[in-house]
Every structure is written in C-alpha cells, then in structure tokens.
C-alpha cells in the first residue's frame, strides 16, 4: 500500500508524536553529560536534575530580596503585559480591519499606511518607542501592540473584504444602514477570524514582550532570562523557556476552544 | 407590485461589451423567467436591476422613476448561494430585517418588540416548514431549507420586486418541485413583480408568465468585433398556453445555451 | 508624537519638586537600587521636601538615551558615555556624584594566549564604542599596536559569556561581573585591565545641569542619600553585609561575588576623596584621552569639527575644549557639602 | 448613498493614500523643529535635511575607519544573510510541510514537534544557538531559519492537507506512486503557497536578522542601528529604518510579481 | 470490462449507519445509473468501489477478486469538481498518466517518449474538441470543457470500471446533451463497466442500462433507531424500454429524493 494511504492507529500516532521529543531529550542529556564530565562547573547545558531543582526553587521559595516567589511574580507580570498588549492590538485591529475592509474611503486612506507599518521592524525603532512611551509598563505593552497590530489589521481587513458581496447586497435590500451592517453582519463574522489572528500573533507577541522586558523591567519572564543570561545560568533559562512555551501553548489551546464554543456556526480551521 | 422599464441599457466592462440594446417593459405583477447561455449576462442584468452595477448607458425606471443608486428594500434578492447569514440562527435571520428597521443604534430590537419580532418570525417559519429548525444555523440546514429561509427573508421586507438568481440550481428535483409551489403560492398571494434567472427551461415555462431569452447576436450579421448579449426572445405566456409551449420553447433554446461565453 | 516629543523636552530651567533618575546594573551603581529599596531616598527627599523616583533600566545605553531625551533628570553613566551621548547631544550635564572608577573591573581577556601582544590579528569581541572599546584602544597603545591590527566584533554585553564559550571567539574586552564569569572558564587569561589606567573609566551620577541649577535641593538629596548608603555598605558589620547582600542579589550574584567585584572597583566611600579626585590634574588628562578617542571614532557627532567641539569644565575654571560650548561639568560642590556634613 | 457604496475615484484614492504619510511627516517636522529650537544639538528628532545629508554621506562617502561605503556594505551583508536564511527556511519548510501534510505517518511524528517549536521564542535560547552554530554568519542565518521555519512549515503543511482529496484519489487511479504524486501533484501546487508564506515571513525574518546583528556582527543594517544607538544618532537610525522598510517592500513586491508570473494557474490572493 | 460483486456491505461512521445490506451484482459492460436523495450515501458507495473508504462489513469483488485496498488504475473516476489538475495545462493533464507510467524517478517523460506522449494527448484532444485549448489552464476552460478533459484523462488509463459522481451537475442543458453523447460513444466503444451518480432522473434513464435507486428503508417498518440507505429499486432497462420507462421511473422516484438526509 502507498505510504500516503497508511494511517497510523490512534495509539501509534501517540507514540510517534512522542518520539522526536524523547530523542531531543536524550541528545540533550548526552551532550550535557559530556560537557559536565569535561568541566563540572559548566553552565551551558545543565543536567535535567539541576534544572528541575532550580525550577522548583524558583516556583516555591520566596526570593531573598523581595520576599516574592520569583516564578509567579514573573509569570503574572508577563502575562498581564501580554494580555493587555494582545487585547489592545485586537481592539485596534478589529476596528481598523473593519474600516479598511468594509469602507472604500477608509481603505484608500489607511491601507497603504498599515501596509508600510507592517514592514517596519519594530526592534529597529525601539529607542523611539521608549522615548515616546516612556519606560514603564506602557512601553512594553506598546511594543507588543506596535509589533502585532499592523499584521493583524491586514489579515482582518482582507477577511472582511472576503465576506461575500451577496451578503452585503442582501443586507442592503433588508434595509440596513452601513452602521447596522457593520454591527450585525460584518462584526460577528469577523470575530472568529480575530481569534484565529490572535492565535497567530501569540508567537510574535511573546517575542516582543521578551525583547521589551530585556530592556526595561524589574520583573517578568523576559527580564529574568535577561538578568541571568549575563551569568549564563542556563539552569534558569531553559526551564523558563519551557515554561513560556507551555504558557504559549495553553493560550493557543484556550483561544481555539473559545472560538469553537463562541462561534459554533464558523467552521474552524481544523487540524494543524 | 411595480412596473419596471428598462430603456436601451448597455454595459461594457473593460471595453468588452457584456449587454447591449436591452429594452424591456414589465407591468406590475409579472413573473419574468430569464434563460440564456452561461456567461451571457443574466446575473449582470439582475445586478443592474438591483443597482449593484450601473449600466454604461440607458436607464432603468421603477414605477416611472429612475432607480435608486444603491440596493434598497423595495427590491428583494435571492441568490443561488450565500443567501442567508451564516452567523445567525434560522430565527435570527428572520428577525434581522426587523432589527435593521428598528433604527436602534445597536441595530437590534430589545424587550417586547424583540419578542414580537421573534413571534412573527416563528409564525413565518411554521408556514415554510422550518419551525423545528428555528435555532439551527444555516450550515446545519439542507440546501432546500436554506433557500426556503432565503426566500422568506427576502419576502419579509414585502419588496415590490423580487429578483431570483438561479435560486434552485443546487436542489434535488423533489425539493425543487416543493420550492416551485412555495414560490408560486407566495407570488400569487403578494402579486409582486418577479425576475427569476434559471438554467432549467422547464422551470422557466412552468413558473413564468413571460420568458426572456438572453443571447449574443450581431445586428449587422457580420464579425465587427465582439458583441454584447441582448434579449433575443420575449415570450408572453398565457397560463393555459404554458404547458403546451414548454416543449416547443425547450427546443427553441436548446441550441443556444451550448454556446458558452468562452466561445465568444 | 508631537505631544510626546514636547512632553519630554529637556527640562527647562524651572524649579519643581518631583524628580526621576535612572540607573542600570553595574557594581558601582548597585547602591542606587539599595537606596531606593531601603527608603534612604525617601528619607532624604522628604528632608528637602521633594520626591525622587529611582528607576532601574536593564539596558545601559537605553537608560542614557532616555536621560538624553529628557525623560529623566539624572542617570548613572561613565565619563566617556556622558561626553558622547548627552553632552555630545547638547544636553548640559553635570557629574554630581563621582562614585568610583574602574580599577580592574574592565579587562582584556584572551583565550589560550597569555600576552597582550598576542592579540594582534585576532577578532576581538566587545561592545563597540563603549568603555571596553576605549580600554582596548589604551591597551593596544601600550604595546604599540593600533586598532587596524585587529578586527573589532560588536557583541552585546548580555551575550558576552555565551559568546566566549563558542570556538569563534578568542579575545574579548568586557566588564564585571562578566569578567569574573569568563575568567572561570578554562583557558581564559586576563592580559590587561583598567587598573593599568586608573581613574580613566569613571562611574558617576550625571544630572541635568539646568535642573540642578534651578533645584539645588535635588542634588543635595541625592548626595545625602548616596553617602549615607556609602557609610552603611562600607562598614564591615551586619548592616553593611546585609546591604551588600541585597545589592549582590539584585545583580544576580552572591555576597562573595559582589565583594570580588567591589575589590576591583575604586569606590569613593568618603566624599572628601572624590572631591580631591575631581579637583586633581589626572582627571583632566583622562578626559583628554577620552575625548580624542571619541572624536577619532566619529562619536562626537557630525557637527564636531574637532575634539575641542564640546567643552568640559573642571573645578577651578579649568576648561578642556570650547569654552563657549561647555556641556559636561565636573562639579564637586555637593560632594563637598557631604564631606563637610552640611547636607 | 451609504458610505460603503461610495467608491473614491482612482485619483482621489491616490490622494487619500498619501494623506496619512504626509500627516506623519508634518507632525514629525513640527516636533523636530520644537526640539531643535530648544536644543540645536538635540539628536532625538533630527531635521529631514540632516537625515538626508547623513543618508547621502553614508551612501557615497567611504567610512573613516574601514574605508567601506557603509550603507552598501551593510545592505549587502544584511541582504545576503536574509536571502540565505529565507532560502534555507523555505527549503526546510517545503520538505517538512509536504511530509507532514501529505504522509500520515510523518504527520503523526513531526506535527507535534513543529507545533511546539513554533511556540518557543527563539530570542530566549540564543546562548544555545551560539554554542551550536558559532558566532559568525552561520548563527545569524540560523536565527532567521529557526525563527521562521516552524510557522512556515505549519502553514505549508496545512495547505498541502487542503489539496482536495479528489485530486489525490484521481492521481492514484492514474497510476501514480506516492513519490510521483509528491513531485507532480503536491509540490507544484505547494510552490505558490511557499511564495505567499515567504512573503508573510519577510517581516519576522527582518526582525530576527536585526536581533542577530545586534548581538554580534561587524556589519549589517541591524548592526549599524544598534551601534549608533550608543550615541543616539537618530539621523542614522531613522533613514536606516526607512531604508529597511523600502527593502522589505521591494522584496515583497518582487515575490508577488514572481508568483504571478511563475504560477499563472494559481489565483493570487489579490488585494491586500 | 469487469464484473463487480457487492456482497452485503454496510458502513457506519461514528456509530451512524450510512449504508447497509447493499447487494449488487453487475456484469461486465453494464452502465449503472445511481439516483437517490441527497445525503443518502451515493458518493459514499462510489468511494467504496474506489477503495477510498472501507466498508464496515461485507465485501466488494471485482472480477471475482477482493478489491485492492487503495485506488488503482483499473478503476477510473470523474468527480463533479476538482477533476483535473489546476496546475497543469490541458495537454499536461493528458500527458500526466504517461508520466506516471514512465517509472522515471522524476515522474516525467523526456525526449522522444515525451514527444510521443504529447502527440497522443493532442490526438485525444482533437477527438474531444479541445485541440485549440491544449495550452490553456483548466481555470480558463468552461465547466463542460473541464469535464470533457476529466473524462478523457480518466479514460486514458483504459480503466475496466469507470466511476462518475454527478459528472454533469454543473453544466448547461446544451453542454450536458453534448456530454451525454460523448460518454455514450466512449462507453459503446470501450465496453467498460460504468457507475454514474446523478440527480437528474432523465439522465439516468437516458444513459443507464440499469438504474439503482438508493434510499433509507426500515426493514422492520418500525422506528428502531436510524437506518442506513440501501438499494431500494434496481431497474434493468432494455435499450428500447428505456424511453417508455423514463416517465414511469421519474414518477416512481419523484417522492423519494424529497426526503433529505437532514430529515433522518
Ligand atoms: N467584474 C467583471 N469583470 C470582467 N468581466 C465580467 C465581470 N463581471 C462579469 N463579467 C463578464 O460578464 C459576462 C456575464 O456574466 P454573468 O455572471 O452576468 O453571466 P450569467 O449569464 O449570469 O452566467 P451564468 O449562467 O454562468 O451565471 C461574463 O462573460 C463575465 O465574464
Ligand atoms: N466523514 C464523514 N463523517 C460523518 N458522516 C459522513 C462522512 N462522510 C459522509 N457522511 C454522511 O454520510 C451520508 C452520505 O453522504 P454522501 O456524500 O455519500 O451522500 P450523497 O448521496 O452522495 O449525497 P449528495 O447527493 O448530496 O452528494 C451523509 O448523510 C453524510 O452526512
Ligand atoms: Mg449568473
Ligand atoms: Mg454525493
């Protein structure tokens, strides 16, 4: 039978999915062993046991200086910045996306600007951002917003423009004003895509958050990674990276589940 | 309930003539079935009646007045697809026109008025046999059920003119027959003016009081560049005549549709 | 943007009561974090009826940029960066508190080589245009080499240790705590450090001259808090160890590590010493070196026709460069008041 | 007439599109003027004229230290890294995307791994990248590749999975082996999406390039921006950002044109 | 050219029975037209004949042997849509089977063999009237032209069994008539065994030698849970009978399709 017609069973799918992760863990363990044997003080590839110990310590023991439990304060700080950034970006992208996708005049005015802005690498204008937005919470949230909003806006605008013209015409024959159509036809059909767009933006949002926290913060997951990077404390960095990945994965899952529940009429992307 | 006068309209898109010299005068309450080869401009003609497209020249008058420059509630439309709103339930789709009419800034009725609108919608749903499906989404309905809903939705505005673009193209013969009855019944009841595009000649003769055949002809008989389509046959049917003419009509137009727009 | 730019204009000379200073993580500046956390700042600010907000910024250059843009009234930085960024950018800046100079904290480190002269022909990883670059220039001078004999690779300080671990890197110039972490690695040899050029890499709290002139209380509060912290941390008692431990944790190390860093830093715990240092001849010579280095590297800006373009003022009317464009001032007045105990 | 039915003419579309850019330029010029009046040596918001002078100098005069013409060496260095990174990422994403999207067994094995990898913020694991890839050109290219490949792979895999099953069945009835289908049915239909995916990856690729060049480099546009940030030379940074944006826009345009020409059978995304 | 034996197959998906007790014995060269309500399992039945779907129970034998577990070149298929490869030109679509057959690692013929294959493809295109369109892409063809190409492509493998799933659903009446002729001609020429699903009863009776009607019936007449569809009528037509039976047959099944799967 052709290989494309061979479907693994549910059980072997599970096993196959675990294999690459296991392989990576084994390779890491070996590399770590080799380095640690050559130099027991090596910091680059700490053993799993020491990473685990460090992680447990960060997650349970209060910090000597502040009395806070570092992992949770960092997580809370980062998640609240991320949530705020994603929320603001979603709101702006939704409004602009609908305006650009639905109203020809706004499209003519704003589409070129949004297009140009989505091409500016935000990291290159960091100094300007920090000066405009200051260095406190606002600037971190702003970097996330500036980093992800243009792309989300373009995405939403093109989805709005893709709403079948027939529906818009139909709504007009049913007596709808532009505003009524926006509220009752365009907005509800754009929301599922907004969630999908947010899911795509999660990766970049974390990236910008970490970049912002590395420059100016006193807590947050990115701050901690940055702080200990100077000492090459990979026993902190690696568990933190795994933790971030887990958080990102959970947010992704939550958004997907939310969309499936909130928009039962929308065929979700399915699969990958 | 309205007369429609189409005065010598023509349309070119990007220099290519699509329609030309289309003249038509329809009295109130007629049921015009439109047939013609694929790509000859039938949908385009409906789009112009709906002000979705503006003719390059000529004029369209409704009840003697120039048609509004954009779609308005006096002309209802049922498309072959996308005819209902996928994000609203069946009942929601029928309440929507009332929501739009409410003039509320949220484009939504509340309280007692909402309950009234919903009750009216439910009554309508019972009438078209969708009562049990009121809280389903369109994607959960069969094609025929969706089209019934689309027609009910279009009729809820009591349009003077109803435009139908291949409304039954995707349906089973059985469901199609049901829909024919539904449509005939509603038309007799409301006496609106109907324009229906169809690919099914039988359907055209069965439902229409008048069958319009669109086709491309070259007035000079020569090959002087591409020509747009126009109305080549305009058959006014007596109710009694219809059955008899059906066969003859079918033979008449059988050859025409074989010429597709691609051969132009 | 217009509003923001207007809002962060360099503070005009006007009296006000709320001040903001920023600092970044470096051994000589860790006391600022301690001063903020321990309440010393509030105590001294209250005494003068003002408020001073002390903000930590991870990225050193960003902290200076923010100060230069006018967001902060003061910022901890080195003499060299004060000259190149705020002073070069037209922001009149005063060295309010000269806290220390690097006395071994900055070093040139070679991998598997032991003599400075071996650096010839190598790629050298360092933060370009920083004091490391300056130290390298001075080191090359001392063995008769020039910058063209090597290749400078700009490398972010945050990644210096990881960079050193790669096989591509054979020479680095950096500062503590990175120096001590790198020296722990096999094959690393320190071939030159800042103790060979004492007093040239100076760490100070720089403040906006106009703000200071209009609000002398701001300077007094900062100096008062700073020198109280100096007294606490320099003592070999429980309180001193606790203070140093707090600073150690904040910089991501422990007390022993922090003390080791302090050992290669010449801290001016006593304000009188700092006053003497600022009033001496050596600092003028140092600044001359520094400004020529900056000019040679084009850092003084395009408008600078010569190293003399920006004037530097020292106590006793000594001025280096253009007397009509003095933008960097070493003013011992507030340290002197601390020394005299009149704050 | 409803606002959504009001279509601006071609001419007014052009004017409307320029307006926001002009507005930004005017605001900038005003803010710059205000700051420069307060402090003529201010570097934060240089006047257009001085930015232009600096840009011309960078583009024409050899550098005092190296003797190179800075703008061109930087551009060349960055573009070659970017091109290499995009090329490698495209190749990997194409192969993995087809494997995951087309072959159930590979999908079971690799999809979870790629999913997890697309969530890891690459900037957080930089030290490991350095150790594995060294510090020179390779590491910069690697950061781009690691940053954009997982997302591209997921995108391509889902597109491959979207190829109508009918086509695959049809090919099998025409006697195709799995390999023959891969070559003749799946690959050609995936290529246009690869180009689209590359276009989407341009933004992130520039981002990672700049981040990599900020960390260790001797030339490149990102290197220059972060270097001159040390003395707040916005007269260099702003023209560089504009230049990067222009380059990104041109690459985007080139890819779009290429796709339209190379895949005439594929309906291009159109519009936004 | 092959016999097909369907032995009591049943299929449930997720516990829902789709088909059950389907028995069928088709002799070589028969033309089976399959009709039935929407969603009753006609396409699913074809999928099983093609090994795209495996029955839950029962067996399918071709020429007395169990059918291969995956699609093979002895069974050709024409779908309503997606039936040709959009990225290949018309000629490319017809050369493709030869490319596959070449066994070359690049799945592509070169040199003289390529020229031969292309010549054969061109000859075929002339025969089906697509000669002038050889270098167009499918998207540039009309629906009828695409279906002609799809049929030619399926036939190029000389399959013993040809499966057609609503192949003419999207076409004009005129083009449809042309296609009927093309298909009848080819069938008579090659004598392959044909299964064709259609919604058009007339088409079924016009082309088929046998008409299979799929429908859901409950064997116990009761309401013991949902039931799968099966073959409820199996009409073997003499060529001469066909015309006569057409009307009767149409009446016979007219009610059935009105019941859609949604009502189940
Ligand atoms: N925006 C457009 N640009 C260019 N040509 C167009 C456009 N819209 C329609 N046409 C052309 O106008 C002609 C008429 O199209 P129309 O959709 O009205 O045909 P139709 O008669 O409804 O065909 P069908 O029966 O297939 O629905 C077609 O040849 C089509 O290619
Ligand atoms: N993968 C699946 N999962 C669940 N149900 C399925 C699946 N595939 C098909 N079905 C169900 O099987 C039934 C038969 O589907 P099928 O497509 O064979 O119908 P059909 O007779 O071809 O209808 P139509 O005339 O509309 O093409 C339908 O009710 C459908 O919902
Ligand atoms: Mg049409
Ligand atoms: Mg089917």
Automatic annotation (TrEMBL), chains A, D:
For membrane topology, the record states: Multi-pass membrane protein
Q: Does the keyword Transit peptide apply?
A: no
Q: Where in the cell is it found?
A: Cell membrane
Q: Which residues form a coiled coil?
A: none
User: What biological processes does GO assign it?
Assistant: cellular response to sulfur starvation; transmembrane transport
Could you list this entry's UniProt keywords, alphabetically sorted: Cell membrane, Membrane, Transmembrane, Transmembrane helix, Transport
Highest rank taxon of the organism:
Bacteria
- One Pfam short name: BPD_transp_1
Residue ranges spanning the membrane: these are 12-31, 82-103, 110-133, 200-219, 231-250
Annotated ABC transmembrane type-1 domain residues: 79-259
Q: Which GO terms describe its cellular component?
A: plasma membrane
Member of which family?
A: Belongs to the binding-protein-dependent transport system permease family.
| Protein name (record) | ABC transporter permease
Q: Which organism is it from?
A: Methylobrevis albus
Show the taxonomic lineage: Bacteria, Pseudomonadati, Pseudomonadota, Alphaproteobacteria, Hyphomicrobiales
TrEMBL record, chains B, E:
Name used for this protein in its record = ATP-binding cassette domain-containing protein
Identify the InterPro entries for this entry: AAA+_ATPase, ABC_transporter-like_ATP-bd, ABC_transporter-like_CS, ABC_transporter_ATP-bind, P-loop_NTPase
Compartments annotated for it: namely: Cell membrane
- Tell me the superkingdom of the source: Bacteria
Give the Gene3D superfamilies listed for this entry. P-loop containing nucleotide triphosphate hydrolases
Q: What is the lineage of its organism?
A: Bacteria, Pseudomonadati, Pseudomonadota, Alphaproteobacteria, Hyphomicrobiales
Q: List the PANTHER family.
A: NITRATE ABC TRANSPORTER ATP-BINDING PROTEIN, TAURINE IMPORT ATP-BINDING PROTEIN-RELATED
Topology in membrane: Peripheral membrane protein
Coiled-coil regions listed? none
Q: Which SUPFAM superfamilies match?
A: P-loop containing nucleoside triphosphate hydrolases (SSF52540)
Q: What is its main location?
A: membrane
Q: Which family does it belong to?
A: Belongs to the ABC transporter superfamily.
Q: Which UniProt keywords apply?
A: ATP-binding, Cell membrane, Membrane, Nucleotide-binding, Transport
Of the GO CC terms on this record, one is: plasma membrane
Q: Which residues form the ABC transporter domain?
A: 4-241
- PROSITE patterns in the cross-refs: ABC_TRANSPORTER_1, ABC_TRANSPORTER_2
GO terms (molecular function) for this protein are: ATP binding; ATP hydrolysis activity
| SMART domains, per the entry | AAA
